[in-house]
Amino acid sequence: MDNRGKKSTFSLIEELAISAVSFNAASKEDVSRLGEQLKNFEETAEKEGFSAIGEAVPLITEVISFLSTDNPEVFRELLFCWIALIQEALASPDAHSIDSAQFSEGIKKQFSEIIVRMERQNKPAQEPPDFVPQVPVLDLSEGPAILQEFVTESTDHLENAEESLLTLESSPGNLKEIDKIFRSFHTIKGMASFLNLEDIRILSHDTETMMDFVRKGTMALKEDITGAILQSIDAMRRLLGLLKEQVGLNGVLKNPYFDISPLIRKMRDIIRAGQAAGAPAPAKRIGDILIEKDIISEQELSAALKQQEFGEAKKIGEILVGMGAATPAQLERGLAEQKAITVAGEAIKISVKKLDDLVDTMGELVIAGTQVIHHPEISALEDTRLRKEIAQLDRIIRDVQNISMAVRLMPIRPVFQKMTRLARDLSQKASKKIEVRVSGEDTEVDKNITELISDPLVHMVRNAIDHGIEPLALRRERGKPDTGTISLNAYHKGGSIIVELADDGGGLDKEKIFKRAIERGLAGQGENLSDEQIHRFIFEPGFSTADQVTDVSGRGVGMDVVKRNIEQLQGRIEIQTQYGQGTKFSIRLPLTLAIIEGIVIGVGGERYILPIFAVLEFICPKSEDISTVANKGELIMAHGKLFPIVRLDRFFNVRYRSETIEEMTGCLVNSDYGQICILIDELIGQQQVVIKNLGEYLKGTKGLSGATILGDGRVGLILDVNSIAGLARQQERSKVF
Amino acid sequence: MTPDEGKQNISARATAKEGKYLTFALGTEEYGLEIQHVREIIGLMEITPVPQVPAYVKGVINLRGKIIPVIDIRNKFGMIHVEYTAETCIIVMEVRGTLMGIIVDRVCDVLEIMQKDIESSPMFSPDVNVSFILGIGKVGDRVRILLDIEKILLADIKVTVNGSI
Question: Which residue among B62, B65, B98 sits closest to A695, beta carbon to beta carbon?
Answer without folding.
Answer: B98
